[in-house]
Amino acid sequence: xxxxxxxxxxxxxxxxFLEVSGLRKSFKGRTVLFDVSFRxxxxxxxGFVGPNGAGKSTTMKIICNLLRPEAGTVQLxxxxxxxxxxxxxxxxxxLIESPAFYPSLSAFDHVAYFARxxxxxxxxxxxxxxxxxxxxxxxxxxxxxxxxxxxxxxxIALAVLHSPQxxxxxxxxxxxxxxxxxxxxxxxxxxxxxxxxxxxxSSHLLYEVEQVCDRVLFIKDGRLVREKRLSGAAxxxxxxxxxxTGDNAxxxxxxxxxxxxxxxxxxADGLECIVAAAELARIPALLVGEDIELYEFTPTRESLExxxxxxxxxxxxxxxx
Amino acid sequence: xxxxxxxxxxxxxxxxxxxxxxxxxxxxxxxSLAMFLAIYLFVIQLYYVESVAEHWSIPNAYYAVPLLFYVxxxxxxxxxxxxxxxxxxxxxxxxxxxxxxxxxxxxxARWQYVVGKYAAIQCHVILLTATYVLCLFIWATxxxxxxxxxxxxxLSLFGLFTRVLIYSLGxxxxxxxxxxxxxxxxxxxxxxxxxxxxxxxxxxYRSLEFGRYYIVRYYFSAMENLPFPFKADFPMYPFNLFCVxxxxxCLIFFLPPLLYFHFRDITE
Lengths: 321, 268
Description:
The complex is a heterodimer.
Chain A: E1 16-27, E2 30-41, E3 45-49, H1 56-63, E4 71-76, E5 79-80, H2 85-90, E6 92-95, H3 107-118, H4 123-132, H5 148-160, E7 166-170, H6 178-195, E8 198-202, H7 206-212, E9 215-220, E10 223-229, E11 238-245, H8 248-258, E12 261-267, E13 270-276, H9 282-289, E14 294-300, H10 304-311, H11 313-320
Parallel strand pairs in A: 3-8, 3-9, 6-7, 7-8
Antiparallel strand pairs in A: 1-2, 1-4, 4-5, 9-10, 11-13, 11-14, 12-13
Helix pairs in contact in A: 3-4
Chain B: H1 10-25, H2 27-49, H3 61-71, H4 73-97, H5 99-103, H6 110-144, H7 151-180, H8 185-203, H9 208-211, H10 239-263
C-alpha cells in the first residue's frame, strides 16, 4: 500500500467518523511513524495489530493528544484535534496501556473523580459503570490491592464512563481472565451496535481481535501495510469468497462495477474477494446471468493469525536468527 | 458559517474533582489532626513544663499566640516541609503511577491541567494554614482566655494568618512548579530541596539589599506587628515587599512548567 494513502473503508462504511491523515512522529531523531492514514466509520470496530514497537501505541497516543505529531491531522466528526483539542477529546474515551491508578483510592473514587471532571457525576452512574465492567462488588476496595485484570476493568470503566462516540483501547484484554475477556468483548460490541460508537482496539490476542473487529489494520515499522475486512466479526456482515470462473478478469470487473464485492484479488487459479453476507447468494446468479461460467464458489475464512504470520514472516525469521 | 460548537467548562470541574481527590487521599485530614495534637503538646510543654507564664506577663490569648508561634517556630518549619512534600506528591502521583496518560486524554488544555493543579493544591494549602493558625489561637485561648481581647488584636492575629498563608502559598507554589518539571516523587523532592537551598543561599549573596528580593528571607515576616515578647525588630520584612517578592518568585517558577507542559509529549 502506498504511504500516506488513507486505508479507505470502501463501500461497506457508511460515513467516515475518525479520519487520521499522514501522521508522522519521531523520537530523538528516529522516525517511528511514517504517514499513517486511515479512516473509521461510526459504529465500526477496528483492530490494530503489529509487532512490538511497530507504532500502535504511538498512533493511539497521538489520537488522544498525548503525543504531538510532526505532521498529519486527526479529525473526529470534522473536529480537528490540533485546532479544537478539548472538543475532540470530549468525544473520546481511551484506555492507553495499563495505568496503575492511585493506589490509595478505591475503584469508586476513581470513577467518581473522572465523572466529576466530565460533569456527569451521579452515584447511580458511577455504580452502573462499575457494574458494567464487573467491579461493583469491589467498588470500595483500594486499587493498590487490585490485580492486573481488575485494573484493566477499571481502565475500561473510565474510558466508557461518559458515553464517548469514539473508543480507543490499547491492549484492553491484558491480564483479563476468560470471563473478563468475554465481558469486555460483549461491552465493545454492544457500544458499537447500540450507540454507534467507533472503536479502535490494539491487541496481540489475534483470536479476540478476530472475534470482535469488523476490520483489522496491520502496522509494521511505523507504516500501515495492510487492511483486512474480517468475516467473523459482526455475525453475517462480510465473508471471504474463493471462486473459479470461465473468465476471471471479466468476473472481477463485473464484481467491482456492481459493488457486490471488494478487496478483489486475482490468484493463480481464480479470484478471492470479500463479500457482504447479504450479497453472497446473488453473486452466482449475477455471474451466470452474464454468461460467465462458474466452476467453484466457496465461502472461506482465513484466520487472522495466518494472515499475521504471513505479513510478519520476516520479523519471525529475524527473531529466530 | 459554522455555528460555535457547544463547549463545557471542564477547567472548573477539573479543579473541583482535584480538590475532592486530594481530600480522598486523606493527607489533609491526617495533617490537620496532627497539627491540632502537636500544638497541644507544645502548649503543655510551654505552660506546664517550662512554666512560661511565671516569667512573662501574658494577659490573654493575643499575647500568647506570638509566644507560642515564636517558640514553636522552629517546629513550624515542619508545616512548610509538609506543604512541600504534600505539593510534590499531589503533582507527581500522576506521572509516577501513569495516571497522567488518562488525565491528559481528558478534554483539558495543557495550561488548564497545570493551572488546575495549582488551584486545587492551593485550596488545601489555605485550609491547612488556616488550621495551623487556628490551632495556635484555640490552644492559647484555652490556656489564657480572651479577657481584654480587642478588635484590633483580632486584626493583628488575622495579619499573622495572612502572612503565614502567603508564605505557605509561595512555598507550595514553588514546590508544585518544580514537581511539574519532574516525573518521580524522589526526583521532585530533591529538586525542590535544591531550589529552596539555592533561594536561601541567594539571600546571603554579598549585600543584604540584594537578598531582600528572595522569598526565603521572609521566613520570620509573620511576626511583624505582633506583640513580640523578646527584644527584636523586623523592619527588613515590610508586608508589601513580602507580597511582591512572593508573587514574582512564584511567577518566575510558574512559567517553565507551563511552557514545558504545553510542548511535552506524555511518554510516562
